[in-house]
Design brief:
The complex is a heterodimer of chains A (285) and B (455).
Chain A: H1 3-27, H2 30-62, H3 73-95, H4 101-118, H5 133-169, H6 184-217, H7 225-243, H8 252-274
Helix pairs in contact in A: 1-2, 1-4, 2-3, 3-4, 3-5, 5-6, 5-8, 6-7, 7-8
Chain B: H1 2-17, H2 19-38, H3 45-52, H4 54-63, H5 72-101, H6 109-114, E1 117-123, H7 127-141, E2 146-150, E3 153-160, H8 167-188, E4 190-197, E5 201-207, E6 214-229, E7 236-247, E8 250-258, E9 263-265, E10 268-277, E11 282-289, E12 295-301, E13 306-307, E14 313-320, E15 329-335, E16 345-348, E17 362-370, E18 373-381, H9 385-404, E19 408-417, E20 420-429, H10 433-452
Antiparallel strand pairs in B: 1-20, 2-3, 3-19, 4-5, 4-18, 5-6, 6-7, 7-8, 9-10, 10-18, 11-12, 11-17, 13-14, 14-15, 15-16, 19-20
The chains are: A mainly alpha (285), B alpha+beta (455).
């Protein structure tokens, strides 16, 4: 029994849940929705167990130098998948809209499959700069924030699909596949709520990162590409939050801002490491 | 004339207050910020010319792309952002403040009729007998009500979470506080670096990009520098320096610093940043005269000629900390009495007996190599950092207050009508209505039970 086995189970469960959620959208059968949710919850539990095991294994492998599994690209991707499921299940618990699963679970699945097949899962000891408790707070807050943005992005895509149909159909109810989508108004509300969760978490993530940098290097802000991109993401979601109160920016434009915001989030997370260079480059392998 | 002037001022004011301007600035900031993540910042002219060519480099300098986050246009954008923030807050704050200084104690008929959260009850009990129980219920399940008598009716008003009306203002103010903190740091602080060779002390540090050293006003000595590697690897686990602060000739502070564990004295902080070799190292060698069997201990430096018995001499030519994974090794050569330069050979610290097999006039064993190190320290003085952290705290609490809490208000009107008491209830929340609606359902049930239960 090792963590890798459970990460494989997680990947398979997220794939299955994704397929069943898509099947739900097509069949509109509530039994299918229940099954999809069960598989998703099962995958989340396997993911949790796998993270716990990997934590334990790091102590077996490195002795006193063991650490929480939040220190390299592989670990961050599997933690990101876990965070997406956590936020998704919370939103689902509150709004009970299973169609969302077909648009949110894929993010977790693609993350897991990339981690399992494309990234090195080796547990290496930490370079001195990463040996800090700030690392844990920084990574947890950032990725919970990113996960909330992933949920918002999935919901925004649904919004853009749905709102056009709703406008055409005017007052008659929408049948077909889009029938199981929540109404555009509800989707807009979920989008806003998810970003309301993600934005303070991103803010905390940036602040803990700055505090750590100040403690390790004596500079809380150095306009390094990673820092700058996190600020770019912050600006975009700040614009989104203000767009909600501005005529002409509600609805479609807000949904696009949410999607662009998540694209920027992904660039901040991966693009900066893979394309640009900077202080965070050691997180790259 | 006068009206026209006011109109112009008004339109300027409206421009700076507008949320559309806020969104525009935020999007402009995010798009322009990308430039500095693609073009390297603070590089040398040669680097830019090599990568982008002469004409592009000239364009970059004109547009200040090589240090864009401090360029006039980026700082100008941040300035405009601040003005927008301040204007928006000045425009909207009085409305929020009004909720504090003059709460609406009496709800109108329209509120009782149209509110999304409402209830209406009728009871035979008199107002005077119902009122204390109703007050107690509202107090324990919502908030302590304020009682007002007007228009022949008794009005109750209770509210909670009024502070959440100020979350947005606190968040806005926090951005300005952080900016002020950053400015304080830029004006009264500095970022510098210094290298201290083990066993020596310094009293000056070198600012980044500057040529004049900064006097610390005290001195710092490095007693020892040490690198620890993970077992069996070349991956550093920790590197640390034993630092001693000397002020007025006295040792005032002693601390072993390492990465993530700096030392602070009089507002100046020293961070472990790098290390490297300083000057030439010394070799400890044992030389055995193979004719007499006599052993001598020699301490020498690289390139230095050392006399041996019978007119021979030797010198160390080279050193490597890791010779083909066999550990530290030195290359030596022996000069014969006639001055001929004999073939160089390698001796390894981990295999002291190895050189005896070479079969020369002398054999050598490497006992040790002592390379003095320097420790590289970042030095920072930032009196604005606490202002920045204060701003950060305000931002976290402000945004939480703004997003997760709401100002909730409850109005109750008790009126005698045809020998009965009519109780009307209305409530609202300025945000998160769905969550409040659920809470109100519970509350209205409690109120209903209170009215029905005459005991």
């Amino acid at each position: 029994m090792d963590s890798n086995l459970f990460f494989n189970v997680t990947t398979f469960a997220y794939f299955t849940a994704m397929v069943i959620y898509i099947a739900f959208v097509v069949t509109r059968s509530s039994a299918v929705a229940v099954l999809a949710k069960l598989v998703a919850v099962g995958g989340f539990l396997a993911n949790t167990l796998a993270l716990g095991l990997r934590w334990y294994e790091s102590y077996q492998l490195l002795g006193g130098d063991g650490r929480a599994p939040l220190t390299n690209l592989y670990e961050s991707v599997v933690f990101f998948a876990w965070s997406i499921l956590l936020i998704y299940l919370l939103v689902d618990w509150k709004y009970k809209q299973p169609a969302m699963g077909a648009f949110v679970i894929p993010f977790a699945f693609f993350g897991m499959i990339w981690a399992q097949f494309g990234l090195s899962a080796s547990i290496d000891p930490l370079v001195p700069a990463l040996q800090s408790n700030w690392l844990t707070y920084h990574v947890i807050t950032c990725f919970l924030g990113y996960a909330a943005f992933a949920v918002a992005c999935g919901v925004s895509i649904m919004y853009l699909i749905k709102v056009g149909k709703e406008e055409k159909a005017e007052n008659s109810p929408i049948g077909g596949i889009l029938g199981v989508f929540p109404s555009a108004r509800v989707l807009d509300d979920i989008n806003y709520r998810a970003i309301m969760i993600g934005f303070p978490l991103l803010t905390l993530g940036i602040i803990t990162g700055a505090a750590w940098a100040n403690y390790a290097w004596g500079t809380y802000w150095s306009w390094d590409p990673k820092e700058t991109w996190s600020l770019i993401v912050w600006f975009i979601y700040a614009a989104f939050l203000h767009a909600r109160f501005t005529r002409g920016w509600v609805g479609r434009r807000a949904a696009w801002l949410s999607i662009i915001g998540f694209a920027a989030t992904i660039f901040c997370y991966l693009g900066v490491n893979l394309v640009l260079s900077g202080l965070h480059s050691y997180g790259g392998s | 004339m006068n009206t026209k002037k006011t109109t112009f001022v008004d339109s300027v004011w409206d421009f700076f207050c507008s949320l559309k301007l806020t969104i525009l600035i935020l999007l402009l900031l995010s798009v322009t910020s990308i430039i500095g993540t693609v073009i390297q910042q603070g590089g040398s002219a040669e680097e830019y010319i090599r990568e982008y060519g002469q004409s592009n480099y000239e364009l970059f300098t004109k547009l200040q792309f090589t240090d864009m986050y401090h360029s006039w246009w980026f700082v100008g954008l941040l300035g405009l952002f601040s003005v927008n923030l301040i204007c928006c807050s000045i425009k909207n704050f009085p409305r929020a403040w009004k909720f504090v200084v003059s709460p609406q104690l009496i709800a109108s008929d329209a509120t009782f009729k149209n509110s999304a959260n409402k209830g209406e009850f009728s009871t035979k009990e008199s107002i005077a007998s119902l009122l204390p129980r109703l007050n107690a219920t509202i107090k324990s399940h919502f908030a302590k009500p304020v009682e007002t008598k007007a228009d022949g009716a008794v009005h109750l008003f209770a509210q909670g979470g009024i502070y959440s009306r100020f979350g947005a203002y606190m968040t806005h103010l926090s951005i300005l506080v952080i900016m002020v903190g950053a400015m304080v740091g830029t004006v009264w602080g500095y970022k510098a670096y210094v290298n201290i060779v083990e066993g020596t002390s310094i009293s000056q540090v070198w600012p980044r990009g500057g040529e004049t050293p900064i006097e610390l006003g005290f001195s710092v000595r490095c007693d020892d520098f040490d690198v620890v590697y993970y077992a069996g690897t070349q991956r550093p686990k920790t590197y640390s320096s034993e630092l001693v602060v000397l002020d007025g000739g006295k040792e005032v502070l002693k601390k072993k610093i390492e990465v993530n564990h700096p030392l602070s004295y009089k507002g100046i902080t020293f961070y472990q940043s790098s290390y490297g070799p300083a000057g030439t190292g010394t070799f400890e060698l044992e030389v055995t005269d193979n004719q007499t069997g006599e052993k001598v201990q020699v301490t020498t430096a690289q390139g230095k000629k050392n006399q041996l018995a019978r007119g021979f001499s030797f010198s160390v030519d080279d050193f490597t900390p890791n010779y083909d994974r066999f550990g530290p090794a030195a290359r030596l050569h022996v000069d014969a009495p006639d001055g001929t330069h004999r073939t160089p050979f390698v001796i390894m610290q981990n295999f002291p007996q190895f050189d005896a097999r070479r079969g020369g006039d002398f054999s050598f064993a490497l006992k040790g190599y002592n390379q003095p190190q320097y420790t590289g320290l970042q030095v920072a003085k930032d009196p604005g950092v606490w202002v920045v952290w204060t701003g950060c705290f305000m931002m976290v609490f402000g945004s939480m207050g703004a997003f997760f809490f709401s100002h909730r208000r409850l109005w109750v009107r008790l009126r005698e009508e045809k020998g009965k008491t009519l109780v009307q209830v209305a409530a609202n929340a300025h945000r998160n209505q769905a969550a409040f609606a659920m809470r109100f359902e519970d509350l209205i049930k409690q109120i209903e039970t209170t009215i029905e239960n005459k005991a």
